[in-house]
Design a protein that fits this description.
There is one protein chain. This protein is α+β, with helices and mostly antiparallel strands. The protein has a single domain (2-104), classed as Ribosome hibernation promotion factor-like (Double Stranded RNA Binding Domain). It has helices at 13-16, 18-29, 80-104; strands at 2-7, 36-45, 57-65, 71-77. It has a 4-stranded mixed β-sheet. Helix 2 (18-29) runs parallel beside helix 3 (80-104). The protein starts with a strand and ends with a helix.
């Protein structure tokens, strides 16, 4: 499973913590590593650096599965780490549902 991390102009690579982001995604989605070929991570600061908010960091995850359409989920939180973990957990639930339905047919 390849993981690609993208950030908007308001988040630099150091703030994205690429090693920690990748480790979090691998830990949470590990059981799907056979079916998922790539995960794209898009990190953005919804309020930019001009405003402060409680949930202004956004993480969009897009997982590419063999033989299926890509699956996308988003999560917003106060920090990049929280947004990544929230999105990864949402992705795990989505993949459980999609792969479970596929296996029963």
């Amino acid at each position: 499973m390849k993981i690609q991390i993208n950030t908007d102009d308001n988040i630099n690579q150091a703030e994205a913590h690429p090693e920690q982001t990748e480790a979090t995604i691998r830990d949470i989605l590990d059981r799907f590593s056979d079916q998922v070929t790539r995960v794209e991570v898009h990190l953005s600061d919804e309020n930019s650096n001009k405003k402060f908010g409680t949930a202004d960091m956004r993480c969009l995850l897009e997982a590419r599965l063999e033989g299926l359409q890509p699956v996308a989920v988003t999560d917003e939180a106060a920090s990049v780490e929280q947004a990544v973990e929230g999105a990864a957990r949402k992705m795990r639930r989505s993949l459980d549902s999609i792969i479970g339905k596929r296996q029963t047919h």
